[in-house]
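Crash report, auto-generated. Payload:
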Amino acid sequence: MHPEDGVLQALLDGELDPTAASEARQLIESCLECRARFDALGRDDALLRQVLPALDRPLTRIPVTQIIARARRDRGEGGLRHFMRWAAVITLIVIGAGALYAVPGSPLRHWVDQLLGKQAPIREPGVASGATTGIAMPFGAHFQIVVVSPKGGGTRSGSLTINLTDDSSVAVRRVDGLAHFVAEIDGMRVEATDMPADFAIGIPRLAPWVEVIADERRVFLKDGSRIITDTRPDSLGRYVLNFTHR
Amino acid sequence: MTRFHDQFVELYDAHFPRVLRFLDRLSGDPTLASDIAQDAFVRLYRRGAPPDRPAAWLITVALNLLRNRRSTDARRSRLLTEARAEAALADPSRRPDEVVESADLHKRVRTTLARLPERDRQLLLLRSEGYRYEELAEALGLNRASVGVLLARAKRAFRAAYEELGGGASDAS
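Recovered output after restart:
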């Protein structure tokens, strides 16, 4: 059996284990053809050893300190680049989130307010201010606001000014006095302490279904984006409803 | 100094010269070779820990860097190679006839190498730097058992091409 060229080359390069090397040597000794191939590979090696140095020229050896300094500098620059990239991403996210939060009816505002447990402030531009008290409640699938006049004789009148808001809670306040506000499971009950009584009601645009009942009569319904009421909105977009109870 | 720092200095002393010479012989461009050898060691330092087989790791990284550099900078590299090769051979301490002989031999060896497939060229040059079969197999993605036979073929191909260009073993002596 003749050893392959790979085996002969490995023997030449000292890459055979001692047993394989010994076997290969015995074969070379006992086979003229194997010997010739082995010698030819040796001559090829010698040729390469002779001619390859012709490619060489003096090369500058770089001090190791220079390599280390460069590696540290690159790492520092890489760290700064990394930081700047993250800073840019965070800035963009903050700007995007701010813009989204500012959009009227934004779900982000709703989620943020819910997350923070924040109740909508009882504050509506265009409604007269005064000594007020009120309530704000998160809405569910259905929400009902029941406004009740105080018991007693005579004419009882008042007004409801309804605004659609970007807040996450339904808010009701009395703008001209005091009232009792009672939170219920799917809504609230509002009882004026005296009459006439004017109320400001803020209904979130995101609220799916909100109904306002004044003295046992439905005076306003928001069903999705649909508004059902007897009154058209004024120039500020508010629905001003007067109610009288005898 | 940290332990890795000391290890790095040892690796640098042991491997930088042969990585550099290998790249110079392979590319024919000492500046490119130096840049890539440095880059490979910078990467090793930034790695923060020595690889299991540093020799093979360094050659793999160096060959990847060389491949990337060549693909992005092919034309510039070619032009500079020729200019630098000529400049490097102009050694004022040599007699004119020696310079001519040396230039002839240099050109013949480079042309011979250029005629070989890339893998054969890399195998021959790496082996001439003393890399072991295991390191050659890992760096070039070869089966360890095939390295011997591939080397034998590459050497035979080198001799055939070299002789075809009019060279013989006595030329180099």
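Post-recovery validation: Chain A touches chain B at residues 4-10, 13, 15, 40-41, 43-52, 54-57, 59-62, 64, 67-68, 70-71, 74-75 (CB under 8 Å).
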